[in-house]
Amino acid sequence: MKAILHADKEWGIGKKNGLMFSIPADMKFFRETTTGNVVVMGSNTLKSFPGGKPLKNRTNIVLYPDGEDRDDCKIVRSLNELFEEIKKYDKDRVFVIGGAMLYKTLLPYCDEVLVTKVEAVGGADAYFENLDENDAFKLIYSSEPVETNGYEVKFTTYKNLAPKPY
Asked: Which end of the chain is more exposed for a tag (fewer CB within 10 A), N or C?
């Protein structure tokens, strides 16, 4: 399992249940990386999408303890149920996409974390763990800085040196 996100200089990842930045290169990377794969999210992330609809061309699994069953995505009610569901898929095709609480809960189980680093401060009210200060993670890839939509971004990959089994 992998996590995918964008983070500002302070490891902020969101504001008012939405993205802090509109960065076409980041959105393209997210779309290309997750399309045809499995995305795992919490209920607030699902609600933040246009019309509360799941992402197209992906298997959407939503941890939503009190949510109703839906035909357009798989609702799981507990962490145990979530782990049982994601075991049905190739772990390299499963991407955690938010929100902050689900990232925090599932980070120890992720083999890799794909972070689009934005060289700006976005006024976040939700944060991701600073992986540069976490001994369990090692930066294994960092692109050259790219200028996009007025922001400098780097595409990075962190490897979990000892992911927990699920």
From this structure: C
Cα separation, 86 vs 73, in Å, equals 13
State the burial class of residue 44 (Cβ atoms within 10 Å of its Cβ: 0-12, 13-18, 19+).
middle
Structural domains of the chain, ranges and CATH numbers in brackets: 2-160 (3.40.430.10)
Question: What's the burial of 47, exposed, middle or buried (CB within 10 Å: 0-12/13-18/19+)?
Answer: middle
Is the distance from CB of 49 to CB of 43 less than 8 angstroms? no
| DSSP structural state of residue 120 | S
Contacts of 33 (CB under 8 A, 6+ apart): 4, 95, 114
Residues 6+ apart with CB under 8 A from 164: 108, 109
Q: What percent of the chain is predicted at pLDDT more than 90?
A: 95
Helix segments in 56-140, DSSP class H = 79-86, 100-106
